[in-house]
Amino acid sequence: MGGARCGGVTAGDVGTLDRRALLKLSAGGLAGRVVGGAAGVRWARVPPPFSVPMPVPVEARPVRSTRDADYYRLAAASALAEILPGTRTPVLAYNGAFPGPTIRARAGRRVVVEHVNRLDEPTTVHLHGGAVRPEDDGGPMDLVEPGRARRYRYPNGQRAATLWYHDHAHHLESEHVYRGLAGAYLLHDECEAGLGLPSGRFDVPIVLRDARFGEDGSLVYIPEDFAGRNTILANGRPQPYFRVAARKYRFRLLNAANMRFFKAELSTGDAFQQIATDRGLLPAPLTTTSVPLSPGERADIVVDFSRYAPGARVVLRDGFSTRPSTNGILRFDVCGRVRDGSRVPERLATLPALRPATAAREFRLSMDKKTGMGFINGRAFDPRRIDFTVERGAAETWRIVNENQVIQHNFHVHLADFRVLDRDGGPPMPTEDGLKDTVMVRPGESVGVRVAFDPAFGGDYIYHCHIIDHSAMGMMGRFRITGGG
Q: Is the pTM of this model over 0.85?
């Protein structure tokens, strides 16, 4: 891919681009039409909180199935979506859905996705949290050009977990994901099925993000526009309501925002049970009143609505927000009581043993506020460079340091999962006591993780800040696994 074009810049240019050059990458696309005239944009009026219903994302159906595999086709194309009531907003969508269709997969049964690019820009698809071969990882320079298609093969040789898929084309990923190229990928297995957890229509994915709308209802994209993205969307609708029966529900919370951190909590102050982190079930349910999620992180929670009388209204709110326009995520409207045969057992899963480390590494995350460039260990992403090599079967201790004292970061590694060991030398948060692939790193903070590369495939993979506006600006690196199959 050394000579591949990416928005008018060769792969070899990527490591030395400054912020001005990055903005020029999209000069012929949607970003360029907005960034230059952002000061004169008039913003849309959004509906009052909790005035529109929250849909459950549409589920993708296989185009065909064999004895051991399901085959899907996802087409990335421009589409219109009703996000604000009565308004058709231009988006980028997989199969016309905003957010993208949910794929439900089973452990040990392969999924093959044919991705068709009907956009006028390159794209690529990364299965976030998936243990896949490098050629199926959707790396930032492994592009699908406009009018072309390719197949991604997912072996699903891992435990049940809430994963997700999204665009990862470098310098374009931020805007592409913001405009809609993301969806949930829910992996099930027999162990999970035998626990009796809420299932079927009581197992609901909730894709969280934020947005800024122009006066005409269009999505306005401005890089690093955290403050301006002041409309919260749940499953593609602004601060909706969701009718629930007075029983237990499993909610799969996915933070698909480019930059926003959420802290999910109930307006009543009541506790709920967290049952899973990014890469699967916790050892035991955690009773808690809040779960923080940085971009890319997932958490499965169980809320028992049988404690509320029919007619009660309970808001899922963002404990990180103090603004009325953003602190309400969605409202649960409790309806009648129904029979509930589900349960949350005291034991959920057995985690792999925490093996001794074979190496230690440090990753220092920084961002230049003047240029907007992002760095890891003082270097911006260069797709020609391998930053380090890992032996298959290794278990390494990584220390991730946020050198910025105001700017928040987080850290995602492709392929491998990890366990959080400490925060600034103290214990990790109880909500991250499980298998992870993304971890928040607050300003000035240091986080230690133990990363496992067994089992693993050989080849080249990516690590980066998953505040995706930051990775688009260079806060990303590349590593190689040797000895893999």
A: yes
